[in-house]
TrEMBL record:
Lineage: Bacteria, Bacillati, Bacillota, Bacilli, Bacillales
Record-stated family: Belongs to the peptide transporter carbon starvation (CstA) (TC 2.A.114) family.
Protein name as it appears in the record: Carbon starvation protein A
Organism: Bacillus badius
Origin superkingdom: Bacteria
Alphabetized UniProt keyword annotations: Cell membrane, Membrane, Transmembrane, Transmembrane helix
């Protein structure tokens, strides 16, 4: 219990200390007009309040990641707590804040445009393909996951195919309509449900004195589970996730003032880390050890863990509400995944999104592809999603490092976590069956060599960009007239 409570306390402390440091390093310009005003189009660029933006950001980035990921990560033991806390404070929240702020400074640009500007034009095409693939996988996975949970919650009385169709119908509306019509109105209620359900489980763990294991050398990795690199691909959204880099620009287009950004971007990542800690602790403590947890996962997957934890902690009614809170997570990330994909494609092809027809012809092919992807085995999709997700995080962190390097600011706060994850990403794809299938030793050697070469390229490009005085932000000379 002490490890769990200390982790929660460190996450909160991290927001007020390291979060403030990152904000200071970047440098807020409170007087600068934001894209919400400069580019206001009534569809994607719409000023919204800090509470609304914060809840939307939390729901956008949360998905099932901070629940299903930590539940699976609980098999590694209390070391999962270390990755959630350290990863969230020093990597994930930094990643989200820098992505959001750099996007705000560049008219709400998405990651492919930012990568093109700061890492080279070739990267625009590479990152665009990565981002669309990632968002398609997220949208598809986040159709089947909530559909299965709802199907089980209703005891199979409603056909799974009908539930999937209903979720797709909602996604189409949320993708096409202006951001303040559905997302801006429903998310505050969804956010309240999510927070209440997570707090209910967390308080239940403390009040009942659940036997949450403490971190020690003996249980650092139960059954000699391979912590490196697999843990960093099992727990993503609760610690570091490239998916967030596809979501933060959506809120950079609705943020009213740069001063609100630490609460919205850094703060909501910390909130997600707390949710991840709660579910990891529940999974570790309520199934008679790791063997029991493994049996439940084998029988019904993370969804079965969610159902059992919710019912045991909160009773029948409270448990049902908690499961609904978990169902909300993937749905509120799936809809914004498709919306982000539509916006990225429109930005890539330079197509205005004011007209409904322009949004429609971009979005419909995405949904057709997603329907086809639902026919592929979930486990295969998830493996590719995990690798694409963390690869995207590496790119976003290197964009942040490049921005800070050119600005002659402390770029190490982004480059260190980016380099760490680059090593893990390369080692994973070299070793994994979905990749090259090399031995672990060969994979680490190849990963190290690849990382050194890419770092050399990064510093070469960074010095050139600094010498050429690459502009860090769009010139907004008329902010007084629009803010």
């Amino acid at each position: 219990m002490y490890t769990f409570l200390a982790g929660i306390a460190l996450l909160i402390l991290g927001y007020f200390t390291y979060g403030k440091l990152i904000e200071t390093i970047f440098g807020v310009k409170a007087e600068r007009a934001t894209p919400a005003y400069v580019n206001n189009d009534g569809v994607d660029y719409v000023p919204m309040s800090t509470p609304k933006n914060s809840l939307i950001q939390l729901l956008n980035i949360a998905g099932t990641g901070p629940i299903f990921g930590p539940i699976m990560g609980a098999l590694y033991g209390p070391v999962a707590f270390i990755w959630i806390v350290v990863g969230c404070i020093f990597a994930g929240a930094v990643h989200d804040y820098l992505t959001g702020m750099i996007s705000i400074r560049n008219r709400g640009a998405h990651l492919p445009e930012l990568a093109s500007k700061f890492l080279g034009k070739v990267m625009k095409h590479v990152v665009n393909a990565f981002a669309i693939l990632l968002l398609l996988l997220v949208g598809t996975v986040f159709v089947s996951t909530p559909a299965s949970l709802l199907h089980a919650l209703m005891n199979g009385k409603v056909a799974l195919s009908l539930i999937i169709a209903a979720i797709f119908a909602y996604y189409i509306l949320a993708t096409l309509l202006p951001v303040d019509k559905i997302i801006g109105r429903l998310y505050p209620y969804f956010g309240a449900l999510l927070i209440i359900s997570a707090l209910g489980v967390g308080i239940g763990l403390v009040v009942t004195g659940a036997p949450i294991p403490e971190l020690s050398l003996r249980n650092f990795h139960p059954d000699h589970a391979p912590v490196f690199p697999l843990l960093f691909f099992t727990i993503t959204c609760g610690a570091l996730s490239g998916f967030h880099a596809t979501q933060t620009p959506m809120i950079s287009r609705t943020t009213q003032n740069e001063q609100q950004s630490r609460k919205i971007f850094y703060g909501m990542m910390i909130a997600e880390g707390i949710i991840a800690m709660i579910w990891a602790a529940a999974a570790m403590s309520l199934f008679n050890g790791y063997g029991g947890l493994n049996e439940v996962l084998a029988a019904g997957g993370p969804g079965a863990v969610v159902s059992e934890v919710s019912a045991s902690m909160l009773g029948a009614i409270g448990g049902t509400l908690a499961v609904l809170g978990v169902v909300v997570l993937p749905i509120t990330s799936g809809d914004t995944a498709f919306r982000s994909a539509r916006m990225i494609i429109a930005e890539y092809l330079t197509i205005s999104q004011k007209k409904f027809s322009s949004r429609l012809w971009i979005a419909l092919p995405l949904f057709v592809l997603s329907v086809l992807l639902t026919q592929i085995d979930f486990n295969i999709l998830w493996r590719y999603f995990s690798w694409a997700n963390q690869s995207t995080a590496v790119i976003a962190l290197f964009v942040g490092a490049m921005y800070l390097y050119i600005a002659r600011k402390n770029y190490w706060v982004s480059l260190i976590p980016g380099t760490f994850m680059l090593v893990m990403v390369l080692a994973y794809i070299l070793n994994a069956p979905i990749g090259f299938g090399l031995s672990m030793t060969a994979s680490w050697i190849g990963s190290t060599i690849g990382t050194v070469l890419l770092l050399a390229l990064f510093f070469h490009a960074a010095k050139k960009a600094r010498a050429n005085k690459l502009p860090l932000e769009d010139d907004i000379s008329d902010w007084n007239s629009v803010a």
